[in-house]
């Protein structure tokens, strides 16, 4: 097995831009553009780790978003910098490792608001999704901040690199059924007609009872696979409320973000920025609506 190269990027992002202050918004946008330029220079096979103060807040609602960028262990509500961070991770196939490890709040939060005296999680460790299993733990250590003289506490990550490749045992892959097709009356009717046709063919056969049973089981599996199997391009298990409509809007949002970044400084920049923000709000609205409808059922 070849050695794994690790590329480490340390960052400090601008503070969350207050509403209406264009200068602060442009400063945050410039930061992520420069960070994207740096990430593009990292070899694709490297383990990419980005650590530092992103001055971004992410919430539990983000763990329900498509992409699985954010884990379930968060302490805040998402702000503008948090949305930028999530979009950046989605585009570069990164995860926010902090949010996938459960700790006490004292070991999750890294900064206290000087006025409100409320602790927040602003410092993060980002890592490639394919190297996710290498990160064993991420937590905050508060004792180091007093020695260094900073208001942000030290973020500590435990990484274990496997130099030997592990051979995975070959197991028979179970048939994955699409729950949406199971609720489709047309698909169910076609399945029932094929079963009835199969029973008629078996009735005129001279097979024994045991042979008929084995043949019946094989036919049921074959017909179930033909009518209800998930599409080949749908490898990752999806939540039932995650509809094709939402996935289509998410893809459009990602494309709009790239269009916006590629047209920075041009006359069409504002148009692409407005389109991206509109799609971002639309995704959240659709997800909230479908989740509510799904749980009401």
How would you describe this protein?
The protein is α+β, with helices and mostly antiparallel strands. The protein folds into 3 domains: 6-159, Deoxyribonuclease I, Chain A, CATH 3.60.10.10; 179-228, no CATH class; 244-296. The chain is 43% helix and 13% strand. It is built from 8 helices and 8 strands; from the N terminus they run βαβαβββββαβααααα. The protein has helices at residues 22-40, 80-92, 143-148, 179-182, 185-203, 209-228, 244-262, 269-296; strands spanning 6-12, 47-53, 94-96, 111-112, 119-120, 123-128, 135-141, 154-159. The strands form 3 sheets. It has a 4-stranded mixed β-sheet with strand order 1-2-6-3, with helices on one face. It has a two-stranded antiparallel ribbon with strand order 4-5. The protein has a two-stranded antiparallel ribbon with strand order 7-8. Helix 5 packs antiparallel against helix 6 (209-228). The longest helix is centred in the last third of the chain and has 28 residues, at 269-296. The protein is elongated and about 85 Å long. The model has no long low-confidence stretch (mean pLDDT 82). This is Craniofacial development protein 2-like.
Summarize the model shown.
This is Craniofacial development protein 2-like. By secondary structure, the protein is α+β, with helices and mostly antiparallel strands.
């Amino acid at each position: 097995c070849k050695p794994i190269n690790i590329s480490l990027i340390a960052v400090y992002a601008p503070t969350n831009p207050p509403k209406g202050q264009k200068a602060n918004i442009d400063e945050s946008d410039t930061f992520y553009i420069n960070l994207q330029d740096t990430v593009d220079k990292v070899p694709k096979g490297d383990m990419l780790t980005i650590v530092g103060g992103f001055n971004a807040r992410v919430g539990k609602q983000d763990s329900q978003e498509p992409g699985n960028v954010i884990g379930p262990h968060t302490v805040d509500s998402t702000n503008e910098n948090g949305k930028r961070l999530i979009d950046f991770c989605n585009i570069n196939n990164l995860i926010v490792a902090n949010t996938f490890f459960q700790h006490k709040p004292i070991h999750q939060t890294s900064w206290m608001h000087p006025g409100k005296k409320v602790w927040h999680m602003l410092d993060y460790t980002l890592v490639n999704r394919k190297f996710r299993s290498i990160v064993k733990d991420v937590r905050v250590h508060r004792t180091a901040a007093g020695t260094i003289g900073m208001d942000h506490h030290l973020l500590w990550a435990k990484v274990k690199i496997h130099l030997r490749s592990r051979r995975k045992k070959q197991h028979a892959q179970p048939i994955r059924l699409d729950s949406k097709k199971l609720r489709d009356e047309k698909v169910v009717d076609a399945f029932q007609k094929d079963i009835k046709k199969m029973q008629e063919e078996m009735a005129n056969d001279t097979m024994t009872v045991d042979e008929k049973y084995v043949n019946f089981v094989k036919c049921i599996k074959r017909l179930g696979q033909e009518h209800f199997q998930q599409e080949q391009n749908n490898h990752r298990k999806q939540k039932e409320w995650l509809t094709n409509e939402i996935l289509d809007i998410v893809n459009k949002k990602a494309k709009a973000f790239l269009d916006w970044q590629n047209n920075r400084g041009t006359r069409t920049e504002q148009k692409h920025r407005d389109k991206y923000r509109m799609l971002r709000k639309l995704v959240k609205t659709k997800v909230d609506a479908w989740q509510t409808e799904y749980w009401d059922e």
